[in-house]
Design a protein that fits this description.
The chain is built from six helices and 16 strands. The protein is of the alpha+beta class. The protein has a single domain (5-268), classed as Carbonic Anhydrase II (Roll). Bound molecules: zinc ion. The site of zinc ion has 6 residues, from strand 7.
Amino acid sequence: MKTRPHQVLGGLLVAAVLATALTVGSASAQTSATAAPAAAPAATTTLPHWTYGGKEGPKHWGELGPADSACSHGSYQTPIDIRKATPAKLPKIRFNYVDDTVSEINNGHTIEAVAAEGDSITVGDEAFSLVQMHFHAPSEHTVNGKPYAAEFHLVHKTAEGKLAVIGVFIERGKKTNPAYDTFIAGSTLSNDATQSESIDWLSILPIDKTTYRYQGSLTTPPCSEGVSWFVMKNPVQLSAAQIKAITAAYSGNNRPLNPLNGRTVNLVRQK
Ligand SMILES: [Zn+2]
């Protein structure tokens, strides 16, 4: 997943400001040339540069700075290989997705659709607002060692900044999936370019909403832990042309697998 510390802390930021912060943050990360405007809190110009390979790749993320040490020294990191899932009766995810206008950006690591205010999920007595959606290709999580063509992450957070991410696996199907068309239309955006799109969030998800659940982390620096993961068991199908379109924008933007370190992965059925 892709988020930054100021997003984690900025529980009260409106989506528009968040979008600005995201754009500015990623611009700084890439070039260090863009000064953060005063309106973007904590979007400093010193965000470290990182990549998916070489000297600034995942093995070295923990050395980027003190704030990134969880990338090397964390115990409960994401992604993982999902192998043994224990069935559990846990609260279902209630979807309150009402808004479908997004601002889509190319942030230099992925294509990201920033949600407008008003979409949320509720799990038990916790409400998480939808912040943004982005993808990794191939998938970050694997199931019994098998990766999928891609994995979308819908990032949510509570007012206190606690994060919950819904993962959606993508596999190749025969038909074009219209739910993903607007997002894919934005996948040709150049770095830091933004455009407005319309997304029906519920239609992004598989019909059967059975999830693998576990406690993990961000999959990009600073790899912060305490993230609740809800990985949809059932993949969504995109056509070969749709997968080609997103992987033309980014591929190989998946963090390597991390050890489970004794964590339990639950399987929660939800039709
Ligand atoms: Zn992600």
